[in-house]
Design goal:
CATH superfamily: Peptidyl-tRNA hydrolase
Order of helices and strands: HEHEEEHEEHEHHH
Structural class: alpha/beta
Number of domains: 1
Number of helices: 7
CATH architecture: 3-Layer(aba) Sandwich
Largest sheet: 7 strands, mixed
Helix content: 25-40%
Number of strands: 7
Strand content: 15-25%
Radius of gyration: 16 Å
Shape: globular
Strand order of the largest sheet: 2-3-4-1-5-7-6
Distance between the termini: 30 Å
Length: 203
């Protein structure tokens, strides 16, 4: 971790056991769009534990749940996708995982996977995803776990931005609903199992 990062004052609480960030764009205009499937996954996790995401000083909607006594933070950045890293950096500091980035899980949409497929990935390339690029820029590393939710490719590859910002049709929506459920399951599985075991189970 760069010295500039270490030198800043850190939050003093015990580190969270897991920080799960679902990417998307804020506002009703983008709700239900392909780009917001990551946000849907954290919203679903909050609902499962009787919580709802609320405003925080980290420019994100946040909920904290307890899973068998362990603290899991759920967050949906409100900075818009291309600036997701601003919120994620603040969340990492707030919940004291700057030195434990293996506890950071980012759930996001993925054009390179067919609709409904999920894939757990540990570090590696960003596949041109602007939200991931912003996170890498602010954390100075790409070594965090991602859960990719496939949304498929647009018929015209030049129309990628418009495609992800639109709501899918009924058939794809059903596939994505199932994928969001499995992505939420995969995130919590990382509490108990190494990432390679979770990859083998869900990929």
């Amino acid at each position: 971790m760069p010295s500039r990062w270490r030198s800043r004052k850190k939050h003093t609480d015990t580190p969270a056991d897991l920080v799960v960030v679902g990417l998307g764009n804020p506002g009703d205009k983008y709700a239900g769009s392909r780009h917001n499937v990551g946000a849907e996954a954290v919203e679903l996790l909050a609902e499962r534990y009787g919580q709802s995401l609320g405003k925080s000083r980290e420019a994100a909607l946040v909920a904290e749940i307890r899973v068998e006594g362990r603290r899991v933070v759920l967050a949906f950045p409100q900075t818009f996708m291309n600036k997701s890293g601003e919120a994620v950096r603040a969340l990492v500091r707030r919940w004291s995982i700057a030195e434990h980035l293996d506890r950071l899980v980012v759930i996001h949409d993925e054009l390179d996977l067919p609709p409904g497929r999920i894939k757990v990935k540990d570090g590696g390339g960003l596949a041109g995803h602007y939200g991931l690029s912003s996170i890498k820029s602010h954390l100075r590393t790409a070594e965090f776990t991602r859960i990719r939710i496939g949304v498929g490719k647009p018929p015209d590859t030049r129309a990628g931005a418009d495609y992800v910002l639109k709501r899918p049709g009924r058939a794809d929506r059903d596939l994505l609903d199932d994928a969001v459920e499995r992505a939420a399951d995969a995130a919590l599985a990382l509490l108990d199992r190494p990432v390679d075991i979770v990859m083998n189970r869900f990929n």
